[in-house]
Amino acid sequence: MAEVVKALGIFGYPLAHSMSHLMYSTAIKHLGINFQFQPYEVKPEHLPAAVEGVRAMGIRGVCVTIPHKGAIIPLLDELTEDARLMRAVNVVCLEDGERLVGHNTDGIGFVTSMRKDVGQDPKGKRILLLGAGGAAKAIAVKLAVEGASHISILNRTPSKAEELAEHVKDQVPGSEVEGGALETEQVGRFAKEADIIINGTSVGMWKKGEPPDKSTLVPSEQIMPHHLVCDVVYNPLLTPLLCSAKRRKAKVLTGLGMIIYQGAEAFRRWTGCELPVQLVRRRLIRALSQAGS
Ligand code: NAP
Q1: pLDDT tens digits in sequence order for the chain, 293 residues long
Q2: Quick one: which of 237, 225, 240 has its CA closest to 288?
Q3: Which residue is catalytic, options 6, 43, 69, 251?
Q4: Which of 16, 121, 140, 222 could form a cystine bridge with 191, CB 3.0-4.6 A?
């Protein structure tokens, strides 16, 4: 009798920008393990049925992306601490063939990339975080949990930054977090005091069929050589912000490490195997350069 292939997948809508298929299929092929990864475009109205399908068909795990990261929460049996704190799920694991457990690996992906790719630890650092969407939320919570000394969150819609700051302070006792408007003067004030500047917005991201976004939210003269400047955007790898940071002799961290290490966490939980990080990194860089970054 043929051996049953263990299924993995991703739920999102639409799925045009996802790198997950390439990342996990590369790892599965390299390791020669009996898994298969399949992208599923799941419309919001079909999410409950799709989630029940995971349980019914014994799918070992799925990645969850826009627009389902929050909507999936009431459909699951359990949440990990990170998913609960971030109020968002990007990975689901089927445990014991029955229980659907929601994880959030975005924050740990970012912090692991900081540690492994540029050798920096968030503990005791002052952070300027731009953005208050899904990626920024995961990063803000994780940095607070990891002991950042102060986090300033600035967002185009200031109320969202203030809300996120309150949320982090509530969830992570003792954390020092403030939120405000993403205005040049504020950026300058907080950049001056910061050790680490993070773009957690989609500004600088290239979209298919559109001219490259050459904008950056941090004026070049506000970046200093002591700064670590990070971007969550990974297409292009060197965003306008990171190019400007390099010219100013600051250390830079691209968004690629975050995506790889959040995926490595998921892969370990689903398969018990380590993701071949260097191989996956090379494949993703090649795919991104072929896509025109
Ligand atoms: P999201 O939830 O839609 O949040 C978007 C954020 O960008 C919001 O803070 C939004 O501000 C801000 N923004 C958008 N356009 C802006 C503009 N023109 N000026 C100033 N701020 C602007 O999206 P997300 O899921 O957080 O994703 C954000 C980026 O992170 C995307 O490029 C995504 O590809 C990337 N990402 C990377 C990883 C990784 O592993 N590297 C993981 C997740 C996401 P408002 O609140 O004012 O709208």
Answers
A1: 667 899 999 999 998 778 999 999 999 999 999 999 999 999 999 999 999 999 999 999 999 999 999 999 999 999 999 999 999 999 999 999 999 999 999 999 999 999 999 999 999 999 999 999 999 999 999 999 999 999 999 999 999 999 999 999 999 999 999 999 999 999 999 999 999 999 999 999 988 778 888 889 999 999 999 999 999 999 999 999 999 999 999 999 999 999 999 999 999 999 999 999 999 999 999 999 887 64
A2: 237
A3: 69
A4: 222
Q: What is the residue with the minimal CA distance to atom 13 of ligand 1?
A: 201
131 CA to middle of ligand 1, Å? 7
Q: Which atom of ligand 1 is nearest to the CA of 182?
A: 20
69 in active site? yes
What is the rounded distance in angstroms from the CA atom of residue 103 to the CA atom of residue 77?
11
CA distance 293 to 55: 38
Q: What pTM does this model have?
A: 0.96
The CA dihedral of 41, 267, 30, 24, to the nearest 10 degrees, is 20
Pocket test residue of 22, 110, 184, 201 for ligand 1, highest count of atoms within 8 A of CB: 201
**Ligand 1 in reach of 134 Cβ (< 6 A):** yes
Is 167 exposed, middle or buried (CB count within 10 Å of its CB: 0-12, 13-18, 19+)?
A: buried
